[in-house]
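Thread amino acids onto this structure.
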C-alpha cells in the first residue's frame, strides 16, 4: 500500500530517452522505501532542439526560463496531493523560489547529494559531462555553506551521447569514469558526486559506489531518501518551511496563477 507519493521532475524530455527513463524507473523502485511511490515527470515534449538539454543548461538565462516548468510541476504536485516534490537535476534552478511557493517538502538533486556527501567525507568533488555548468555548481555549494569543503566541479572527460550509448555497453565508459575519479582524488577529493543524473544512473546500474576507497554518491537515491526524510519529519513533528523574510515569503496562489497565465507559462503545464 502506498503511503508516500513523490513527484519526480526531470530536466529531460523523458519520452525521448527510453533507456534512461526505464533505468530511472527501475532504480526508483530499488531505492525507495516500501510504500513510497515515485511518479516520474519530464519536460514538455517541445522544450529542446535536441534530445538532451545539454546545450541549454550551460546558459544561466535558459535555465531560468526552463525552470518555470519546475514551478508548474511543484504546483501540480501540491494540488494533486503528492507528499513531496523532487527536482532531479544538478543545477536546481529556481529551487529556492519553488520552496516559497508550496508547502510540501521540496528537495533538490544537487543539494541532497551535497548533504549526503558531507557525511561521507571531508572534501567534495563533482564530475560533469556538461562543463559549462561548473560555475552554477560552485555557486550552489556556496549557498549551502559547503564552499570550504568543495574542491570544484571538473570535467569527467566524455559527453552525454557517450553516456547514453553506454547503457547498452557500460564497461568501457565505467573505466573512463574511474580514471577521471582517480584524477579528482589526486586533487584531494575524498567523496565524489557524479554530476548529471544520467551519469549517476549509469554508475548505479554498474554498481559503482566507490573508487579506490572513495565513495561515489548515488545522488538519485540521496534525493529520494531526502524526500522521504522530510516527509517523515513533517508527519512526526509538523515542521514546515520558514515563511519569514524575502526569500521564504509565500505569495498568494491566486496571484501566482494570474502571472503564470499572463506570461503564457501555464500553456506548457503537464508536459
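Threaded sequence (271 positions):
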Amino acid at each position: 500500500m502506498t503511503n508516500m507519493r513523490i513527484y519526480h521532475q526531470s530536466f529531460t524530455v523523458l519520452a525521448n530517452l527510453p533507456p534512461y527513463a526505464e533505468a530511472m524507473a527501475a532504480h526508483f523502485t530499488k531505492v525507495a522505501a516500501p510504500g513510497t511511490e515515485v511518479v516520474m515527470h519530464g519536460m514538455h515534449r517541445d522544450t529542446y532542439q535536441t534530445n538532451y538539454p545539454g546545450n541549454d543548461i550551460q546558459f544561466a538565462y535558459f535555465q531560468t526560463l526552463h525552470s518555470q516548468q519546475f514551478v508548474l510541476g511543484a504546483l501540480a504536485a501540491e494540488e494533486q496531493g503528492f507528499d513531496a516534490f523532487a527536482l532531479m537535476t544538478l543545477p536546481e534552478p529556481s529551487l529556492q523560489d519553488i520552496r516559497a511557493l508550496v508547502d510540501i517538502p521540496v528537495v533538490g538533486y544537487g543539494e541532497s547529494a551535497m548533504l549526503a556527501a558531507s557525511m561521507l567525507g571531508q572534501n567534495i568533488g563533482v564530475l560533469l559531462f556538461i562543463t559549462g555548468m561548473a560555475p552554477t555548481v560552485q555557486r550552489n555549494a556556496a549557498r549551502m555553506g559547503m564552499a570550504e569543503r568543495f574542491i570544484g566541479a571538473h570535467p569527467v572527460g566524455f559527453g552525454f551521447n557517450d553516456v547514453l550509448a553506454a547503457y547498452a555497453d557500460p564497461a568501457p565508459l565505467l573505466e573512463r569514469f574511474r580514471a577521471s575519479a582517480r584524477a579528482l582524488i589526486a586533487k584531494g577529493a575524498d567523496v565524489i558526486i557524479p554530476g548529471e543524473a544520467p551519469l549517476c544512473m549509469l554508475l548505479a546500474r554498474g554498481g559503482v559506489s566507490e573508487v579506490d576507497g572513495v565513495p561515489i554518491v548515488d545522488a538519485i537515491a540521496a534525493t529520494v531518501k531526502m524526500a522521504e526524510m522530510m516527509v517523515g519529519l513533517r508527519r512526526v513533528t509538523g515542521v514546515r518551511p520558514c515563511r519569514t523574510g524575502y526569500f521564504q515569503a509565500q505569495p498568494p496562489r491566486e496571484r501566482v496563477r494570474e502571472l503564470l497565465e499572463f506570461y503564457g507559462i501555464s500553456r506548457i503545464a503537464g508536459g
